[in-house]
Design goal:
With 159 residues, the protein is of the alpha+beta class. It has six helices and six strands; from the N terminus they run H-H-H-H-E-E-E-H-E-H-E-E. A six-stranded mixed β-sheet has the order 1-2-3-4-6-5. The longest helix has 16 residues. It starts with a helix and ends in a 14-residue tail after the last strand.
């Protein structure tokens, strides 16, 4: 998965430049290293990254999930602009739900980009509260309850 690093950095750069308004776009254009610095090697070694691919096996989106006690935090979700509104983001949220469920997490939270609130609401996140950020204005914290896998009986004859 670490081989995808440069591909995912480029994907995030394209999505950010297409999705963010000024002055953020100009800052990212002037400092492309900001995006690469936001990636953490432990995401890849810790099985926290989920990548969506198209029919040609090209990466078209990715999500990063981290454990945080009983919760899981969605650290990143980016979709290639050419694949927006095609279900890629929803598929990545579904993959994050599966991963959080495997970890035993009861919910996923995201410190949501205000520009993506409509998307997060559409996939089931609900507003929890606002969080002060050291390098930005307050952002909404949104939560998605993780459905737990149904416990199956191991007793072949449960009489």
């Amino acid at each position: 998965m670490i081989a995808d690093f440069a591909v995912l950095v480029d994907l995030q750069r394209r999505a950010s430049l297409a999705g963010y308004p000024e002055p953020v776009r100009s800052i990212l254009e002037a400092h492309p290293e900001f995006i690469e610095r936001s990636f953490r090697p432990e995401w890849f070694s810790g099985d926290q990254v989920r990548v969506a691919v198209d029919g040609r096996n090209d990466s078209v989106g990715f999500a990063v999930l981290a454990r945080s006690g009983e919760e899981a935090e969605l650290l990143a979700l980016f979709v290639d602009p050419g694949h927006w509104r095609r279900g890629v983001g929803k598929a990545l949220i579904d993959a994050a739900i599966v991963l959080a469920s495997e970890w035993g997490g009861a919910e996923i939270f995201v410190l949501a980009n205000p520009l993506a609130l409509g998307f997060y609401t559409s996939v089931g996140f609900v507003h929890d509260r606002y969080v002060d950020m050291p390098n930005a204005a307050v952002v909404p914290r949104m939560i998605l309850k993780v459905p737990q896998a149904r416990q199956l009986s191991t007793d072949p004859d449960p009489q």
